[in-house]
Design goal:
10 helices; alpha+beta; single chain; about 35% helix
Length: about 375
């Protein structure tokens, strides 16, 4: 499909998502943390408050010990330091568990889009929670029986915004090569990096991150496609004075995360000018696919853009049921939105997708349901 000016219009033609088998119930993990922190009442009070207020009710993990007894879990503050999993151990789990999840999501996306694996010309793999070589991209080529000549583009260690960054990159590739069919696969095993600490920043990170994979097919829609998401102009911006507000570094016992409580305030301070620059006078976005990096981010965007509860409902539902899945989250939100619009037999509707990551960076793209 082409625009009125003849330029090809890229669309998300199919979406697939997958989660690991172990389900974390927020109230249960909060109770286990309280038991592990029984000697530190201030930390217990903080943990209970943040776990209750973060907007998450359930999440999923690839690590069974996180849903077992307190005594059996090696990730809690009560764990002896010598028993806490090292980065090498966590990466071994990542290597074992990431492939099946990514493969499941990719197969569902291919099925949803009716695409033939041999038609895939590019594969973009996204992750910031693990690394190994040969990477996920090479293994997926083999397991999905893609062409050995497929163009492989791994996006590593870009954080929560990377899933939308991959979608924006796919749109740009389609503009240059309209016949391309691009498979995006995001896999994040965030819970592998839970730290055995009673410090506030560690408890904050442990309160809402979950594990999962998402995938999509981006290409030009044909007559056989219905109920899909067109992709329009995109923008990437680094917000000023915020490089230390979201930090993700490799440590000896997993990756060390620091998330500043100032992030919603920073978005509220700098994002309005960027949206004013991006939006046209005639734009009236109806659809809002917001990466739910935390409840505070969704609250800020809702207030900032005068959104209704219905407009933020997709993001809030994903946060409630799955937590923050880092880069994989935005496709969970887009799938939830698209499926709801299909059920309601909606007409064409336009809007925006937004995601935020270390930098602090904001990724924004126009979307339209067709």
């Amino acid at each position: 499909m082409e625009s009125d000016k003849g330029a090809p219009i890229a669309s998300i033609l199919g979406i697939g998502t997958a989660v690991p088998p172990y389900r974390i119930v927020q109230s249960e993990v909060s109770a286990r943390l309280a038991e592990a922190l029984s000697d530190y009442p201030d930390s217990v009070r903080w943990a209970r408050r943040i776990f209750k207020q973060c907007g998450v009710e359930t999440r999923y993990t690839c690590e069974p010990s996180l849903v077992g007894s307190t005594a059996a879990c090696r990730y809690l503050p009560s764990s002896p330091l010598e028993e806490v999993p090292t980065t090498r151990e966590r990466m071994d789990v990542y290597k074992r568990e990431s492939m099946p999840l990514g493969l499941e999501a990719a197969r569902l996306a291919l099925l949803d889009s009716r695409a033939d694996p041999l038609d895939v010309t590019h594969i973009i793999t996204v992750s910031c929670t693990g690394q190994y070589l040969p990477g996920l991209d090479a293994l997926l080529v083999k397991e999905l029986q893609l062409s050995p000549h497929v163009n492989r583009i791994p996006l590593q260690f870009l954080g929560c915004a990377a899933g939308l960054k991959a979608i924006c990159l796919a749109r740009q590739l389609i503009a240059a090569a309209p016949s391309a069919t691009i498979l995006i696969v995001c896999v994040e095993l965030c819970t592998l990096h839970i730290q055995p600490s009673g410090k506030r920043e560690a408890l904050f990170g442990a309160s809402f991150f979950g594990d999962g994979a998402s995938a999509c097919i981006v290409g030009c829609a044909g007559d056989e496609h219905q109920g899909y998401l067109q992709l329009g102009e995109d923008m990437s911006v680094l917000l000023p004075d915020s490089s230390e507000e979201m930090v993700w570094e490799v440590g000896n016992r997993g990756f060390d995360l620091y998330l500043s409580p100032n992030i919603p305030r920073i978005l509220g301070q700098y994002l309005p000018a960027e949206l004013d620059r991006f939006l046209r006078v005639e734009d009236k976005p109806e659809l809002w696919a917001i990466h739910p990096g935390g409840r505070g981010i969704v609250d800020t965007l809702q207030d900032l853009c005068a959104l209704t509860d219905e407009q933020t409902s997709y993001s809030r539902r994903i946060l409630r049921d799955y937590g923050n899945l880092s880069s994989a989250t935005i496709l969970f939100v887009l799938q939830e939105m698209r499926d709801d619009l299909r059920r309601r037999k909606s007409g064409r509707a336009a809007g925006l997708a937004l995601a935020f990551g270390p930098g602090v960076t904001a990724e924004i793209i126009r979307i339209a349901y067709v």
